Amino acid sequence: MAAIPQDLLDRVRALESRIRMLEGRAQIRPALDQILNGDVVVGEGGALAVLHPSGSATLFRVGRIFENPDEYGTVIRRDDGTIAISLYRGQNNPSTVPQAIRLVDADGSEIFAEDTVAGGIARPYIPLPVPLEESTAKWPSTTSTTFATVGRSNGIIQQPRARVYAQVTASGGATGQVRFLVNGTVVATGTAGQPLLATFAIPSYTYGMTAEFELQARVSSGTGTAFALTRYLYGFQS
Fold first, then answer.
1. Do 231 and 132 meet the contact criterion of CB atoms below 8 Å apart?
2. How much is the pTM?
3. Which sign, positive or negative, has the C-alpha torsion 39, 43, 45, 48?
4. In whole angstroms, how far apart are CA 124 and each of 17, 102, 120, 146, 149?
5. Is 190 within 8 Å of 196 (Cβ atoms)?
6. Structural contact between residues 171 and 224, judged by C-beta atoms closer than 8 angstroms
7. pLDDT for 111-150, tens place per residue?
8. Contact present, 213 and 154 (Cβ < 8 Å)
């Protein structure tokens, strides 16, 4: 048997030494389930997903949400697979529509959404109507045949539109009429003798602006007194 060249043995010993050194370094590196420094990058149209242990649902996904057409966003689901929080526009909406943040309750109802058209809040519609005087004779009134303010309030605007409902009645055979103003601008006018129900844009809307609301009434025909009352007023999405 031929002797192994000494230089070959030296090379083997050097390789063994390097292997032991690399093994030692491997022991002091972070575990594969930890990231102690730097970024995690998912590119080339990919996504980062967290799956339910049963495989029944993707609980968290960020990256490509939809295909054909591609859309990139974020979806967080409950462990039953229902959406809780999302950031996307949806496959039925054109790409020109901004993505919207949405919060959905366990029953699937949208309890919060931003207004991607004009800014601010799309949902919820926060205020509830306050019980008001039932006797029309005690409502604010006017005998003027031109519009006179019978109700006034101020508020902070968080949505680009609003919805108002006001009632009008009159005495002495007269007919009453109402209209509604925001910051001095008429935004809705009712038919004489009929309730006012209208959805309107807030003039010069900016999120968080303050506004003054006025309910005006007049005697549109006959002689008597017009009585009017705002039943509800709340913000509305665009």
1. yes
2. 0.70
3. negative
4. 68, 11, 11, 37, 30
5. yes
6. yes
7. 899 988 888 888 887 777 788 899 999 999 999 999 999 9
8. yes
